[in-house]
């Protein structure tokens, strides 16, 4: 089920209930903890600035670090690595963001 969000914040929701966001040109799809998908007319960049505790893993994906299930590395430098979320969604990690994402995941494991 998809629901539209207005530009002026007519709808409010708790960022802690958002698993991840997928950007598509000037829209975002918010994948919620309850399985709902909400379409927003905000850009992914807008959400990056609003929710700095979320992690940008790809130009099209922003994830809530709380709901990372595990990290699936590529076999070598040419294959893609993925973050797997608690809903089993596999989100690609961009090659240029891989080092930063791995360092952050190591920090989370040490802290957790």
From TrEMBL:
<dbReference type="Pfam" id="PF04397">
    <property type="entry name" value="LytTR"/>
</dbReference>
<dbReference type="InterPro" id="IPR007492">
    <property type="entry name" value="LytTR_DNA-bd_dom"/>
</dbReference>
<feature type="domain" description="HTH LytTR-type">
    <location>
        <begin position="1"/>
        <end position="107"/>
    </location>
</feature>
<protein>
    <submittedName>
        <fullName>LytTR family transcriptional regulator</fullName>
    </submittedName>
</protein>
<dbReference type="GO" id="GO:0003677">
    <property type="term" value="F:DNA binding"/>
</dbReference>
């Amino acid at each position: 089920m998809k629901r539209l969000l207005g530009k002026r914040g007519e709808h409010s929701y708790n960022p802690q209930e958002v698993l991840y966001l997928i950007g598509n040109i000037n829209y975002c799809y918010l994948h919620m903890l309850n399985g709902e998908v909400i379409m927003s007319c905000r850009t992914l960049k807008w959400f990056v600035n609003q929710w700095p505790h979320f992690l940008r893993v790809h130009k099209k994906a922003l994830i809530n670090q709380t709901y990372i299930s595990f990290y699936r590395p590529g076999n070598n430098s040419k294959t893609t690595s993925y973050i797997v979320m608690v809903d089993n969604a596999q989100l690609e990690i961009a090659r240029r963001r891989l080092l930063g994402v791995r360092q952050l995941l190591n920090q989370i494991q040490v802290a957790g």
